[in-house]
Amino acid sequence: MTEDKNYPNPGDLIEVRRPGYQHWALYLGKGFVIHVTDVGSTSVSSSSSGSVFTRMAKVKKELLKEVTKNHSWAVNNQYDHYRTPFPMEEIIRRAEPCIDKELPYRLFFKNCEHFVTMLRYGEGVSWQV
């Protein structure tokens, strides 16, 4: 791990800037994140926002560097100004049972940002939609 203040801490929200949209993940620690991808996707470069019409998403635990690839990313806990996050241990406890599960996906109501904010705050929110 690094002493860089911009390096994520477990429970942090990670915003990945991709062409035309942002993909969101939650940092678990030791280089891993949890995020949602298209069902049937075998590539970490595929994201939950890859298709507006996707009906299901799969929750994956993957390395941050594999999810971000060559895209820029940043810790973005912007909702902390409006909501109180769960303690870090609770966020991770809530996230781990979701790994490898399939979840309903709707671009405007249940997207990747909704998923990670639900884990962190107990309420799914997304300003990008």
Quick structural summary:
GO terms for molecular function: N-acyltransferase activity; phospholipase A1 activity; phospholipase A2 activity. With 129 residues, the chain is an alpha+beta fold. Helices cover 18% and strands 29% of the residues.
Q: Secondary-structure blueprint of this entry?
A:
Blueprint: E1 13-18, E2 21-29, E3 32-38, E4 56-63, H1 64-68, E5 72-75, H2 88-95, E6 102-104, H3 112-121
Antiparallel strand pairs: 1-2, 1-5, 2-3, 3-4, 4-6
Structure overview:
By secondary structure, this protein is α+β, with helices and mostly antiparallel strands. The chain has a single domain (12-43, 53-121), classed as endopeptidase fold (from Nostoc punctiforme), CATH 3.90.1720. Helix content is 18%, strand content 29%. It has three helices and six strands; from the N terminus they run ββββαβαβα. The protein has a six-stranded antiparallel β-sheet. β2 (21-29) and β3 form a beta hairpin. It is globular and about 30 Å long. The N and C termini lie far apart (33 Å). The model is unreliable at 42-52 (pLDDT under 50). It holds the Pfam family LRAT. Belongs to the H-rev107 family. Residues 13-128 form the LRAT domain.
